[in-house]
Every structure is written in C-alpha cells, then in structure tokens.
Amino acid sequence: MKIIICGAGQVGFGIAERLSAEDNDVTVIDTSDRLVRAISDTLDVQGIVGHGAHPDVLERAGAADADMIIAVTFVDEVNMMACEVANVIFNIPTKIARVRAQPYLTPEYRGLFARDNTAIDVVISPEIAVGEMVLRRLALPGAFEAIYFADDRVVAMGIAVDDECPIVNTPLSQLTDLFPDLNALVVAIHRDGDLAMPHGDDQMLPGDHVYVIADQSQAMRTLGLFGHEEQQANRVLIGGGGNIGLYLARKLEERDSSIQLRIIEANRERAELIAEDLKRTVVLNGSCLDQDILREAGVRQADVFVALTNDDKVNVLSSLLAKQEGAEQAMCLISGMSLGPLVSSLGIESFIDPRTVTVSTILQHVRRGRIRGVHPIQGGAGEIIEAEALETSPMIGKPLREVELPEGVRLGAVVRGEEVIIPDGQTVIKPHDRVILAALRDQVKQLQHLFRVSLEYF
C-alpha cells in the first residue's frame, strides 16, 4: 500500500516504523526539518518538509495514487483538513485523523464525524483509547496487559510468572488435563528478550511474561491459577489531571460509586477546572514527585497509583516513589520509545504505550479484508489478531491437526455465535467463525494463506 503520514512526532514515527517494516510505501510529512530528517535517516520512508494539509505538499507526497492518509500532527484541525483535502482533491480511499480535543468527541456532537458530514473515515482519540485501556487493566489487576476481542467475549492477558506461580515448570499440554473446564490457552511466552509461540511440551519458567487467551468470563479464574489473586482497586490515586486522567476519573465515578478517587495535578488552573468537573474525586494541586503531596493524597493506602502526566520521566519516577511510599501497585503512561523496557525491571507492574493503541487501530485498517482486531505485543515483536474465517480459507472444514500452521502462529480461541471455543487438534473451523490468534511479526504475512481472500487482504 502507498500510505501518507502527516506528522513525524512520536506517534507518526511509531506508525511509520511499523508500516514501512511491512513493505508498505510510506511518505511522512512534517513542518519540522529536524523531525523529517530524523525519520528519513532512521527508517525506509520518504520524508517531505511541509504543511500536511496543503494540496501542493500532498501532491509532492504522491497523494494522487495513495491508498491511505494518516493525519497525526499535534493540531486536530490540521489533521481534519488534511483528510478533507485528501478526499476532495486526491480521492484517497482511506482517511484517518487523530483528534485529541475532547469537545469534538462529546456525545452531543457525535454527528460531527458521521460519514455524511466529513471526509474522515476513522477518528482516533488516543486519550479515550488509553483511558479505556487503563480501565480494563484496573478490572484485571493481576495482568500487565489486557486486550479484548470478539465484542469483549475474549480477552488476551499478559501475565508475569514468578516463583509462586502454582503451574510453573508444568508442560502446557498437561494444563488441559489438570483444568479440563478452563477456557484459556497460553499462546506466547516472552523470555530473556525473545518472544516465542510455545508447543505442548514447553514449560513456563519464573521470570517469563506469558500471553493467555481466555473466555472473558474466566479471566479472573485464569489469573488465580497463575498465582495472581490481586483484588480490584477501591482506592485509586491518579497522577496528572490532563485529558486522560480526567477521562479515567469520570469513568470510574460513573461505574463504581464505592471507589475512592484522588488526582494530583501540577497546574493550579487545571486542578481547579477538573475539581469543578468531577463529582466525588478529591483534586490536589502539586507535583507527583513531592512526597508530602503524595502522602496528603493517601498514597500509603492506595491500591493503585496511575501516573498519567505528559512527561514520561515524571510518570516513571512518581510510580517508583508511590511504590516506595506504600502504594500496592503502580501503572504509568510512557509515550517515548526508550523507557518501556526498563519499567518491569523497576518493579512497576504495568505501563501503557499510547503509540501501541494508535498503531493497533491503524493496522486494523491497513490489513483490509476480514481483520476485526490487531494488537501488537512486546514492542511489535508479535501480534494478537482477530480475523473472520471465510469459505475460501484452507482452515475450513478439517481438524486443526491437519492444518499446516506457520511455526510462529498459535490459535487461541474461536468464537462461533455466542460460544467461545478454546481449540485443540480436533477443532474444526467453520465459515464466519471469528478466530483469535497470536503470531510473530515475521509470520503475519503468512496468515493470508490461512484466511485466503486476495492479495490485498494484508
């Protein structure tokens, strides 16, 4: 595919890195010569200095024969206009825009982005997407990652394995015998920096990070079998009252009146603004790195501290400080690319990368066809994918033991109507089943043979 990306910031860079690695023809536009030079020198992409919404700049970028434009500059209005120009002048088929300002996204204005009113095909709101991701992780406190598929009927959980795990050193094939009614399957293991799709005789070892696909109704039981019996948080302390922190607090207020909420916000005007907006949340003005402020906010009694400021270093350091002061768990937002690998080694239970959320949404549209959901794992080393099986797929109509799966692919669940099936060798895939599977990055293209529709499927 020929793809134009407007915006060479962290999000634009992450998208370009992923799409260019998959042999797409990628051109990146930005007004900053420094950012364009950096992305051109680092990635196999073309860089153009200019305004992403200007017709002449888009023309230089090859908009006349582009398949997709992804507008992720820092200015919402530029992103919207870039999509309008791409549609009216160049007739680009797929137009994706990042929109961050919450007034555009409130329910009373939901018609603004309706198909009849705008040229934008897909609106991405990282703040809302990240807020929802935090909510899902709070709902599954023993998981460092929680990704939902098939209309939330299936969940893929990232789980840390330690010495206390009851099923450590147990061959995976024996888990079915030990727990025959458990609708869950280990589909990937991250060990010593490498991601692998396991076989039945493989074992989980202390220090592993494993990915388990499970029936959502058995998620808590699955976590318990791994030794994670953490209770859902009743006392939540949020560091940062920006768009994400405010969205999270609003949703928690709406969903559970028993949760005790507090927010620490450094900017006084912002603190006063969100204090007026929220009903039950206590808002404190101060720094998350101030021990006295943390103690005043009740960090010692907090079940979880969630760091959501716009500064990665503040998020990491305040999470460490909160843990030191007595918070049961810590979760932090990391937008940059350098700090993520360090977080788990520092004792922080979970981190959220907003770039991953954005890339997941975009990959779902790049992979045209019957792809329902895509989520990169372990920095893009692999993916968990939801796809619909068509009549033309070689998977249809025969037991899975007879299907030649690529080495780096593992099926985790099949959703048929309302039923969630954890597959084994006897399972037969039927047309229109929704299949959730894990795949190593270099095996993703091989999946077109499993879900055969056409070359433009992927």
Give structural notes.
With 458 residues, the protein is of the alpha/beta class. It has four domains: 2-124, Rossmann fold (3-Layer(aba) Sandwich), CATH 3.40.50; 141-224, Regulator of K+ conductance, C-terminal domain (Alpha-Beta Plaits), CATH 3.30.70.1450; 235-327, NAD(P)-binding Rossmann-like Domain (Rossmann fold), CATH 3.40.50.720; 357-457, Regulator of K+ conductance, C-terminal domain (Alpha-Beta Plaits). 29% of the residues lie in helices and 25% in strands. The chain has 14 helices and 22 strands. It has helices at residues 10-21, 33-42, 55-60, 76-88, 126-139, 172-178, 219-225, 243-255, 268-277, 291-296, 312-325, 340-343, 354-366, 447-450, and strands at residues 2-6, 25-30, 46-49, 68-71, 94-98, 122-124, 145-149, 154-160, 184-191, 194-196, 209-215, 235-239, 260-265, 282-285, 304-307, 329-333, 350-352, 371-377, 382-388, 409-416, 419-421, 434-440. The strands form four sheets. It has a six-stranded parallel sheet with strand order 3-2-1-4-5-6, with helices on both faces. It has a six-stranded parallel sheet with strand order 14-13-12-15-16-17, with helices on both faces.
Strand content: 25-35%
Q: What is the CATH topology descriptor of the largest domain?
A: Rossmann fold
Q: Give the helix proportion (percent range).
A: 25-40%
Principal-axes shape call: globular
Strand order of the largest sheet: 3-2-1-4-5-6
How many discrete domains? 4
Total count of strands: 22
Structural class given helices, strands, pairing?
alpha/beta
